[in-house]
Write a structure and sequence with these properties.
This protein is α/β, with parallel strands linked by helices and about 325 residues long. About 35% of the residues lie in helices and about 15% in strands. The protein is built from 13 helices and ten strands. The protein has helices at about 5-10, 70-80, 100-105, 125-140, 160, 170-175, 190-205, 225-230, 230-235, 250-255, 260-270, 280-295, 300-315, and strands spanning about 45, 55, 55-60, 85-90, 115-120, 145-150, 180-185, 210-215, 240-245, 275-280. Helix 4 (about 125-140) packs across helix 6 and helix 11 (about 260-270) packs across helix 12. The longest helix has 15 residues, at about 125-140. The protein is globular. Residues about 1-20, about 25-30 and about 330-335 have low confidence and may be disordered.
Length: about 325
């Protein structure tokens, strides 16, 4: 899909394990939610081929566990939703569960119905996935999740473990059938080769992911690029792309090559469904909201200017600390709980 065509569209307790043959079954019917409130100051986009409409800015869950007072976290979440952000990001392991607990509290009193709620699981086996899923449902105080993603697929053997006979994919499919989750995706940030292998293994098992989350930022284009290597494959397969690491935590901004609004506008210009950004205070939330309000797709000349400015800083991976350095090969297989 051409970027300009995409942007035109964008603007307008425990689950029992299934057998491996379940991978060939059609996904459970899921009716997209279309009644979430929208704000004229927010951008909304289609989430891949799910039929879901979500905010192009996603509220990152990790930073919501950093406030000393939980009430501050809840105020950030409520303010974000009140200003049109509908995509909520979280993970079972963020801040030892604190991020999910705070989001769960914030989504009471009618807020749950206003959002598309996503979280992630670290478990690679049926048993571990089911255990974590039940914990996340309890923390988030909901009976279902809109999207659950396999978290940190960063090792070359992660796809094999997930699709093994006792792999977590079978638990995810069973949970979807049981109505505990609606869509299935995966995330990672180490090396594009791992993402591509995950897509290949899924295809070999006749399984289609709904979403994929990966680094999309002003430096990624120059070094171990998910933008160039993974995003075209995902788009061709109708998978919703979730961009993360816009600021590389804070290191990309420390390079002094771009400012925050410019970095967010770069991410929003890409053919992604959502740019998930970490927000730990109301000023940072207002920054993200301003980026949405003022967004116009960057021109080719503007993109070239950004990439020219960031090229030298990006080549060593110095500001993308979540990727292996240039001297490293793709991540090797190692144990992962």
């Amino acid at each position: 899909m051409e970027r300009r065509d995409f942007l035109k569209t964008a603007a307008a307790a425990s689950v029992a394990a299934t057998t491996p043959t379940a991978l060939t079954q059609s996904p459970a019917a899921s009716t997209p939610t279309t009644t979430r409130p929208q704000s004229p100051d927010m951008i909304y986009r289609q989430l891949g081929t799910t039929g879901e409409t979500v905010s192009a800015i996603g509220l990152g869950g990790y930073h919501l566990g950093h406030q000393a007072d939980p009430k501050d976290s809840i105020k950030i979440i409520h303010t974000a939703i009140d200003h049109g952000i509908t995509f909520m990001d979280n993970c079972w392991d963020y801040n030892d569960g604190t991020s999910e607990l705070r989001m769960g509290e914030a989504l009471q009193n009618g807020y749950r119905d206003k959002v598309f709620l996503m979280t992630k699981m670290d478990g690679r086996t049926v048993t571990e996935y089911n255990k974590q899923l039940e914990q996340s449902l309890a923390r988030l105080r909901t009976d279902h999740l809109d999207l659950v993603q396999f978290h940190e697929v960063i090792r070359m053997d992660d796809p094999d473990r997930i699709f093994a006979d006792d792999g977590a994919i079978h638990a995810a499919i069973a949970a979807r059938k049981a109505g505990k989750l609606r869509y299935i995706g995966f995330t990672g940030h180490k090396d594009p080769a791992v993402h591509l292998r995950m897509l290949e293994v899924a295809k070999a098992h006749d399984f289609h992911y709904d979403t994929v989350q990966m680094p999309i930022n002003v430096m990624d284009a120059h070094f171990r690029s998910f933008t160039h290597q993974v995003m075209p494959v995902a788009l061709q397969q109708g998978i919703g792309v979730l961009a993360m690491k816009t600021f590389g935590d804070h290191f990309i901004l420390e390079s002094k090559t771009v400012d925050p609004i410019e970095a967010l506008h770069y991410g929003l210009t890409q053919p992604v469904s959502v740019v998930i950004t970490g927000i730990d205070s109301l000023p940072i939330l207002n920054q993200a909201l301003e980026a949405a309000r003022t967004f116009k797709p960057l021109t080719d000349a503007q993109i070239k200017s950004i990439l020219d400015r960031t090229q030298q800083a990006a080549l060593t991976g110095k500001f993308e600390l979540f990727k292996p350095p240039p001297t490293s090969t793709a991540p090797s297989p190692t144990p992962n709980g």
